[in-house]
Specification:
The chain is mostly helical. The protein is built from five helices and two strands. Strands 1-2 form a two-stranded antiparallel ribbon.
Length: about 170
């Protein structure tokens, strides 16, 4: 389709229209590209759910750690520390299924197995890396990953519902 680009440097601005065209060497139809886009959006949405769960886990864990420190200083240390450790272990057990927290450097991917986020990203890269509609295998892989994500999200919600008091 037709797009516009605007470039601004200091006070100077220029806008230019251009048209994005399909590679003429390919037989890919607009319908094929639409299928690719639709699946990519579904995968992106699941990755967003996964990343939101990671943010929630880390937020809760940070809050629990802060509260534990405060309560220790107030003289309520042992029981609170034990409960805090148990909750952090439960949260980490879910986090460790969603992402690989040990991957800090490029070489770490050789030493620690990929988790669910990496699997979604891989399927997304396969879908977007092709100049055609997604393969049946891409759809099947995505469908296999969705219940695993739902399982871990349910487990996280269960931990929050049972182990945290409103």
């Amino acid at each position: 389709g037709t797009c516009k680009v605007r470039m601004t440097v200091g006070e100077w601005t220029q806008t230019q229209s251009f048209e994005v065209k399909r590679d003429p060497r390919l037989s890919t139809t607009q319908g094929d590209f639409q299928k690719q886009f639709n699946l990519a959006i579904k995968i992106r949405d699941k990755l967003t759910e996964l990343n939101n769960a990671i943010r929630k886990i880390r937020y809760v864990r940070n809050q629990v750690e802060s509260l534990t420190i405060t309560l220790k200083k107030a003289g309520y240390g042992d029981e609170i520390a034990q409960a805090s450790n148990e909750l952090r272990k439960k949260l980490s057990s879910v986090e460790d299924k969603l992402i690989q927290p040990e991957n800090k450097k490029d070489a770490d991917i050789c030493n620690f197995p990929p988790q669910l986020d990496s699997r979604f990203v891989y399927v997304l890269s396969v879908v977007l890396g092709a100049e055609t509609q997604p393969t049946d295998g891409s759809y099947e892989c995505f469908e296999d990953l969705k219940p695993k994500l739902a399982e871990y999200l349910n487990k996280l919600q269960e931990i929050i519902d049972k182990d945290l008091v409103s």
